[in-house]
Design brief:
The chain has helices at about 45-60, 65-80, 160-170, 205-220, 255-260, 275-280; strands spanning about 1-10, 10-25, 30-40, 85-95, 105-110, 115-125, 130-135, 145-155, 175-180, 185, 195-205, 225-235, 240, 265-270, 270, 285-290. It is α+β, with helices and mostly antiparallel strands and about 300 residues long. It has two domains: about 1-135, GTP cyclohydrolase I, C-terminal domain/NADPH-dependent 7-cyano-7-deazaguanine reductase, N-terminal domain (GTP Cyclohydrolase I, domain 2), CATH 3.30.1130; about 145-295, 7,8-Dihydro-6-hydroxymethylpterin-pyrophosphokinase HPPK (Alpha-Beta Plaits). A hairpin with a 7-residue loop joins strand 10 and strand 11.
C-alpha cells in the first residue's frame, strides 16, 4: 500500500493505492483498490484504518462486479462527514494470463451528501480499453424504503462489532447504508455500560425480512450486539414512523442522541427528534465518544 498527499486551497487530497481486498483461489482472481479522498486541512484521517475498513468491505463482497464493489466502497466512505469527496478504483486481475484481457477496473467518485457517480472501465493492459459512464442521480425504486436501525453493545469491542454489522448490511443486494451516526457511550445505573449508534439503511427488504437479518447477525455475534429497526419511511423522507405493527414505545436517549446527530431534521411519529430528546429521562447517561469511529480515527 502506498500513500501520498497534495494540498491546495485549504484542502488536502490523500491518495492511498494498492489496498489488498483479497483473492479467489478457484479462478485465480485478485482484487485491489485505490482510494483518493479530499478533506479540509484541519481534518485528519488515518490511512491505515481507512485501508483496513476498505479491505473489510472488499472481503465481504468478493466476486461481485467491480463497478458494484467500487460504488459500495465509495458510498460508505462518503457517509463520513470528514470527507469532501472520495474516489475509489477497484482492480480485478488474474494471476495467470488465462483471459483475453488481464485486468478489469471501475472508478467511482462520491461527494459529501451526494450519491455515488460511477464511471466504469474494462481495461486491457495490452492497450485496448472500453468505458461506460453513468451521469446523474441514481433512480429511486419505489419499492425501496428507509429504515433507521439501532446498534447497542456492552462488549469491549463494540466498535468492531458495529463496523462488521454495517459492512454486512451494506453488502447485501438491495441494501445501501445512507447514514452512520457518531458513536455514543451509554452509562448504566447497574454498571453495564456500553456503546450505541444508529444507521440509516435504504433497503428493498420488508420490515419482517430485515428483522430476520438483524436476528441472524445478533446470533452470528453470539448475542454481543443488539440490533433493532426503530423507524421506517419513504426514501429521502425525514418524517419516519415506528414500523407498522410494532408496539407503541418511547425511544430512549441511546437511540435519539445518535439519530439526531446523524439527521437533525428527522422526526419520529410526527415529533421532532430534538423535542423527544429533551423529554428523554435518560439523556444524561448518553454522550458522544467519537465522530470518526467508522474509520478508527478516534474523536
Amino acid at each position: 500500500m502506498r500513500t501520498g498527499k497534495r494540498r491546495a486551497r485549504n484542502m488536502t487530497t490523500v491518495d492511498c493505492s494498492g489496498i489488498d481486498l483479497g483473492s479467489n483461489e478457484d479462478d485465480m482472481r485478485v482484487w485491489t483498490a485505490d482510494v483518493s479522498w479530499v478533506i479540509d486541512d484541519d481534518q485528519l484521517v488515518d490511512a491505515e484504518d481507512l485501508a483496513a475498513h476498505v479491505a473489510a468491505i472488499g472481503q465481504m463482497m468478493l466476486g461481485v462486479p467491480v463497478e458494484q464493489l467500487a460504488e459500495r466502497i465509495a458510498a460508505q466512505l462518503a457517509n463520513q462527514s470528514v470527507f469532501r469527496s472520495v474516489t475509489v478504483t477497484v482492480h480485478m486481475h488474474w494471476k495467470a494470463p488465462l483471459r483475453t484481457f488481464e485486468q478489469l477496473s471501475a472508478t467511482v467518485t462520491a461527494n459529501r451528501q451526494s450519491s455515488a457517480n460511477p464511471s466504469a472501465a474494462a481495461a486491457n493492459t495490452g492497450g485496448e480499453e472500453s468505458a461506460s459512464t453513468h451521469d446523474g442521480a441514481l433512480p429511486v425504486d419505489p419499492s425501496y424504503r428507509d429504515a433507521v436501525i439501532s446498534l447497542h453493545s456492552a462488549a469491549l469491542n463494540a466498535e468492531q462489532l458495529f463496523r462488521e454489522v454495517i459492512v454486512t448490511l451494506d453488502s447485501m443486494p438491495g441494501n445501501q447504508v445512507d447514514g452512520i451516526s457518531p458513536l455514543y457511550f451509554v452509562g448504566s445505573l447497574n454498571g453495564t455500560d456500553g456503546h450505541a449508534a444508529v444507521i440509516k439503511l435504504s433497503t428493498a427488504m420488508g420490515v419482517r425480512q430485515l428483522n430476520q437479518v438483524l436476528d441472524a447477525l445478533h446470533t452470528t455475534h453470539e448475542g454481543a450486539v443488539q440490533l433493532s429497526v426503530v423507524a421506517t419511511g419513504k426514501v429521502g423522507d425525514e418524517s419516519l414512523h415506528a414500523p407498522k405493527g410494532a408496539a407503541d414505545h418511547h425511544l430512549g436517549a441511546a437511540v435519539l442522541e445518535p439519530w439526531a446527530a446523524m439527521d437533525p431534521n428527522a422526526s419520529y411519529n410526527g415529533d421532532p427528534l430534538a423535542y423527544l430528546l429533551a423529554m428523554a429521562p435518560d439523556s444524561a447517561q448518553v454522550g458522544v465518544e467519537s465522530e470518526r469511529w467508522v474509520m478508527g480515527g478516534g474523536r
